Amino acid sequence: VTAAETAGRSGRRLAPSTCRCFGDAAGDRSTHFGFETVPEAEKAKKVYKVFENVAHHYDTMNDAMSLGIHRLWKDALLHAMHPQPGAQLLDVAGGTGDIAFRFLEYVRSQRERQRRRAEDGEEAGPRESGAVVCDINKEMLKVGKRRADSAGVTAGLSWVAGDAEELPFDDDQFDIYTVAFGIRNVTHIDQALKEALRVLKPGGRFMCLEFSKVTNPVLARLYDAYSFNVIPALGEVIAADWKSYQYLVESIRKFPDQEEFKFMIEDAGFFCVKYYNLTGGVVALHSGFKL
Amino acid sequence: MSLSSLGRSCWRFSRLRCTFTPKGMSLFSWLCVNWNTPSPVHRSVCVKRVHGSTSVFTDRCYEGLYPGHIHTTALQKTLLAVGSGVAALHDPYRHDMVAVLGETTGHLALMNLRDKMRNDPEGFTILAERPRIRLSTLDLKEMASLPDGSLGREYLRFLEDNHVTPDSRADVKFVDDEELAYVMQRYREVHDLLHTLLGMPTNMLGEVAVKWFEAAQTGLPMCALGAVLGPLRLNASRLQSLFTSLGPWALQNGRRARCVLSIFYERRWAQSIEDLRQELNIQTPPVTLTATKRRNI
């Protein structure tokens, strides 16, 4: 954690997508922003604006939109991760800190369990676990820090502003890289996956929770009706922001399905890539290893 | 999908009650097709009008019929109406929710108001010229120099005493007709002028009195709801004042007054308030209320 913290503080950079566009005429290339088509250089700015607007209602809206089920999805991620004391986590697009808090709680209870089983005098483990929350959006990080402060969680937790496509960390730093409901907002997903490979230690694990394609056709219709009707209306009523939630719902439809994303992860260089469908495919948990 | 067939499906959404299930199609699948229409179909047509926008929500290049317009299906409007109603009841100071409630429930009343305006020569001019009441369009210095008792001077005094500004009115978002959206916007911007005309401050009693007047005048369901539920937040003495004098006066005058949206206020700043009241057929209020701090019940 200390090394990552130092790297984070000294290597912190501003969003580099605008710098890259001067080099390779990316202004001509377009990408999707929900169902809109926008120049690539603009997408990052628009996404930043969306999350700046929603940051203060983010957690309330998550509970309202998913009826609290997002907590179960995140718990499932931690259960699949099964982190051991001493593990170093990088949570990218981790904004308000949900994964990082759960991670620290999990390793704490694992450590307690180890201590209870340990013979008298034996040390529980060589290192403390640490979680680094990295997010491009400062408003989201502010909300996360406030939550951490009010919950009294500070040990082993650090907050870094950074771009998933160009992480401000050295190579081979982390045991686990997670990205929960964030990777679909990245302009160049393949770049983010390459960065994930770079910062993971050999043997490290990549885990991604993301909305995906619902397999059952009846459930798919209900899910579409719910997504396009209820969610933007909830966004307007709770957060006074219809358009941001319209974007969020559309961005889910533009994201590749389970198999395609699995191929993308394999292309980036990960091995043993698997995915698990949660809630009938509403959410998919992808996992891969750096060998 | 062509624009004409898109238009037909949009019309179908708003007239959902009147449509029927085509032969050979189960009700469930028909419902799925008509209620579940992904907004992408509409947005993908509108999006072609957007070029080079530099921010997510820009006025210059916009989707929809007017800046800020968000197209919604009948189901979405219903959800918004219910949600905003609950939110507004929970916190009456969420003006944006009151605004959304008004927009999603006011279609018939807005059409009625628009027709009234069209049938009035001054109202017709307003619909043609589309004036807006904002700080940027008002000449505050000139209004301050007008004599006491004139509309402009008293309006300015009202804004100062009650610490309000005409720019705090939310923009219309969910009305799917550009002219009706203007009528709604005009109603919002005229609201403060109504306070001035009726001599009502912005405390709870004053707001309820104005709501009773507006409910009788406009027939907007949001006004009626506010008129019915607003008194719940008044104490006993104010309730008495409302039911015995202010309320009947507001209702009576709301019914018989000329349509307040058909007055080109921007050209009448120098006119005396008494004169304007007579012209509109509004009696002087029976009780004089003074401006107090906001949130005073």
Using brief descriptors, characterize the structure shown.
heterodimer, A: 291 residues, alpha/beta, Rossmann fold, 7-stranded mixed β-sheet, two-stranded antiparallel sheet, 11 helices, 9 strands, 51% helix, globular, disordered N terminus, B: 297 residues, mainly alpha, 14 helices, 57% helix, disordered C terminus
Helix content of chain B: 55-70%
- Average pLDDT taken over every residue of chain B: 79
* Strand proportion of chain A: 15-25%
Regions with little confidence, pLDDT below 50 for 5+ residues of chain A:
1-24
The global form of chain B is globular
Distance between the termini of chain A: 22 Å
CATH class descriptor name of chain A: Alpha Beta
Order of helices and strands of chain B: HHHHHHHHHHHHHH
Number of domains of chain A: 1
Biggest interface: A-B, 30 and 30 residues
How many whole angstroms does the radius of gyration of chain A measure? 19 Å
- The helix/strand class of chain A is alpha/beta
Spatial order of the strands forming the largest sheet of chain A: 5-4-3-6-7-9-8
Helix percentage of chain A: 40-55%
Spans of chain B of 5+ residues with little confidence (pLDDT < 50)? 6-60, 293-297
Describe the structure.
The complex is a heterodimer of chains A (291) and B (297). With 291 residues, chain A is α/β, with parallel strands linked by helices. Chain A has one domain: Rossmann fold (3-Layer(aba) Sandwich). Chain A has eleven helices and nine strands. Chain A has a seven-stranded mixed β-sheet, with helices on both faces. The radius of gyration of chain A is 19 Å and the shape is globular. The N terminus of chain A is likely disordered. By secondary structure, chain B is mainly α. Classes of the chains: A alpha/beta (291), B mainly alpha (297). Chains A and B meet through strand 2, helix 3, helix 9 and helix 10 of A and helix 3, helix 4 and helix 5 of B.
